[in-house]
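Protein modeling request. Please complete all fields; requests missing the sequence field cannot be processed.
Requester role: graduate student
Desired output: 3D structure, token encoding
Chains: 1
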Amino acid sequence: MPPLELADLTWEDVRDLDRARAVAILPVGAVEAHGPHLPLATDVVIARAMARAGAARIEAQGLGALLLPPLHFTAAPFGAAFPGTLSISPATVTALVVDLARELTRHGFAVLAIANAHLDPAHLGALANACEAARRERLLPLVWPDVSRKPWALRLTEEFKSGACHAGRYEGSILLAECPNLVREDARRALSPNPASLSTAIRNGARTFEEAGGSRAYFGWPADATAEEGRATVEALGEILADAVLGALATGSAT
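Delivered output (255 residues):
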């Protein structure tokens, strides 16, 4: 049975939930260039898949899980030069997430978990600031497993760990598993590998996809993507989210 989606419920449905044992899950992505073969909302598709998979595992542990409408817009300066990328300020993202945490605290939810699939440094900084602000205000636990860091990154694919993974095999595989109709297959199959590591380029000071070696807004091996790998990766992302939530509840802290 799929997890409950807040937007599909009535206010009386929400009133009757055991909110003190319910985890609200916020899928977070971006509207951003993902090569010539994947849709602008690729990160949102991945975040929703992570949220659904994580919710199933959370519910298996006797807790409730409720999917919030996804956050589509965030800081995406690395792809800002590409038509279609919609980048907003990090401060706006931080403020929105903190406001949402305040509302969920008011409604008595147990945890706000962020299923994040967008790895632009400006966006990651905005989420980190939101977590810190929620802690300062003593809001409900805000759980965010940052998959760009250990230990979570070690549980994902080799391409992901290489840093050459934007719109490559890692993301393309998930899209083939989740919504193959949105993948431009002719373009994907024709793309040459781009082994330039985006994460290494960021450490070396790159500020855009172009500076990092991604003139067409993709990195990695997109032609090698498979739906089978995508399904396995979604399961791994769901396990990461659930483990982070359960760990935070067990220790009384947020991640």
